[in-house]
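Suppose a colleague, Dr. K., hands you the sequence of a protein chain of 100 amino acids and asks what its three-dimensional shape might be. Before reaching for any lab equipment, you can write down a predicted structure in token form. Begin with the sequence itself:
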Amino acid sequence: MDRSRVPTGTRANFMKFFYVYVLHNPLKKFIYIGYSEDLKQRLASHNKGENKSTRSYIPLELIHYEAYKNIKDAKRRELYLKSNKGKTTLLTMLKEYFKK
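The predicted structure, expressed as tokens, is then:
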């Protein structure tokens, strides 16, 4: 599809994503899994201490994220990664990162 011909008001719809992300503080061995529509803003918010659940673990490093076009898919993935099975999957996916 030639996006240059799409009316300006609808162009933003092509770039709208919903993010599932993983933050890590290696010194405190802390992992946080979350969801956001604005990943850069959310990471900055976490590292400014604006989020009660992560405030005592800053600085946090973004170590993984996934982008979804559908909000329900993103939220379902977030819930899965927060489950025991999902955490195991995540540790397997990021095996080399956690070896260091």
